């Protein structure tokens, strides 16, 4: 460790402590993936199968779970692993504890080698306009959902003593100047991972995924809003922003690549840069840190990729 005054600054040796250079050490274990039936979660499940792990697809959409199980069946059989689908609302602690029980029952002799707290929702709106129930929904999934999963699974992982990784999906919004309720939640997700890394002291690796625009369904995630948070909200007609994400966003499989590369290298902050917008997340984080350290103000540099998504939306809405 190098030293600056009273503060210790992690060096490359510390990064190696957060790494699994040989991912084969995780083979045969269980990969619990929330939001696992689509998008980044499904891509992580595919990579887990390729690494001989048994994926658990924990998702709020039962229909998507069934479709994902069918999609993964062939690869899982070829790899000699099992796929478990389990419906869960991660904002509900009892439901997450039920998931943990189901995993233990199905895989009693296999360690949990990977916990991916990937379930997340968009929405919430601006700080001044968001209602109390909007805050409860977004923070309930994006923050409390991560905390629920960590509390339900990490003690077991520590007891088992096997090599393991914890990954939470945040966003570029977790590293740059925050915007809206969503940005607040993603900063909190990063903070959970930072705190967890320090608490675990290298016993398990910890990583936080912070991607740019990804071709997932997160823009329409309010379709799954539980009744206690006001129930589903499905706008009439097409959603041009969602269409822009699907058209211009990076493939979820690329995010999965970033995650598994980080697990090997020890990278904690996984800045999953889109090929169409290289350096943007780094620039966002750098701008925010300069503002903090140089008595600046919150500012978010523009992104050609994000502008392309919203320009498409505006053009569609004006037609």
Series of secondary-structure elements, N-terminal to C-terminal:
EEHEHEHEHEHEHEHHEHH
Q: What's the shape?
A: globular
Class by alpha and beta content:
alpha/beta
Percent range for helical residues?
A: 40-55%
The radius of gyration computed from the alpha-carbon positions, rounded to a whole number of angstroms, is 19 Å
N-to-C span:
59 Å
Number of helices: 10
Q: Describe the main β-sheet briefly.
A: 7 strands, parallel
Strand order of the largest sheet: 5-4-3-6-7-8-9
Number of strands: 9
Quick description:
The protein is an alpha/beta fold and 319 residues long. The chain has helices spanning 12-17, 39-50, 62-79, 93-106, 132-160, 180-200, 240-248, 252-265, 280-293, 304-318; strands spanning 2-4, 7-9, 30-34, 54-59, 84-87, 112-117, 165-169, 205-211, 269-272. The protein is built from 10 helices and 9 strands.
